[in-house]
Design goal:
132 residues, mainly beta, 5-stranded antiparallel beta sheet, 1 helix, 6% helix, binds zinc ion
Length: 132
C-alpha cells in the first residue's frame, strides 16, 4: 500500500523509495535538491551536507522533471503536489515551504486532513478555500 506523489503540471512521479525529490531554491538564492519523507506527518528531511537548510528559511520547491513551481494560490508559504492512493484516488497535498515548520494538509473534496505540530498556522486559509 503505497501512495504516489506527482507533479500537478507534468504528472511525473516525485517519489523514489521513501522520499519525494524536489529541486529547491532558498530565500537567499541557493539551488539544491531536498528530499522530504513521503509519509504525511514525517518531517525527515534529507539533503547534501553542502546544501545548508537553516531553520526558518523559506525554500521554493520545483518539480525536478519539468521545473514547474510547486506553489498554490492558497498561501505563498505553502507548496502543492498531488498524491495518488492505491485506489487511484487523487488528493492535493500542501506543505510548508519554511524549513522546520511542520504544517501539512491533505485535501480531497471538502475534507482536509492535517499533519504536523504547526498545522494550525495555515488552517484558516485552507478551510476558507476548500469548504465553500
Ligand atoms: Zn513536473
Amino acid at each position: 500500500m503505497i501512495n504516489h506523489f506527482i507533479c500537478p503540471k507534468c504528472r511525473s512521479h516525485l517519489n523514489v523509495g521513501d522520499d519525494l525529490i524536489f529541486a529547491a531554491k532558498s530565500q537567499d538564492g541557493r539551488k539544491g535538491l531536498i528530499l522530504l519523507h513521503s509519509e504525511l506527518g514525517n518531517y525527515t528531511v534529507r539533503h547534501n551536507p553542502h546544501y545548508d537548510i537553516p531553520a526558518g528559511m523559506k525554500f521554493e520547491f520545483h518539480c525536478p522533471v519539468c521545473h514547474h513551481p510547486l506553489a498554490t494560490d492558497i498561501n505563498k508559504n505553502l507548496s502543492r503536489v498531488l498524491m495518488v492512493d492505491p485506489g487511484n484516488k487523487e488528493y492535493e497535498v500542501l506543505f510548508s515551504k519554511i524549513a522546520g515548520e511542520k504544517s501539512t494538509y491533505c485535501l480531497i473534496g471538502e475534507n482536509v486532513n492535517m499533519f504536523g505540530d504547526d498545522a494550525g498556522n495555515y488552517v484558516d486559509f485552507v478551510n476558507l478555500s476548500y469548504t465553500k
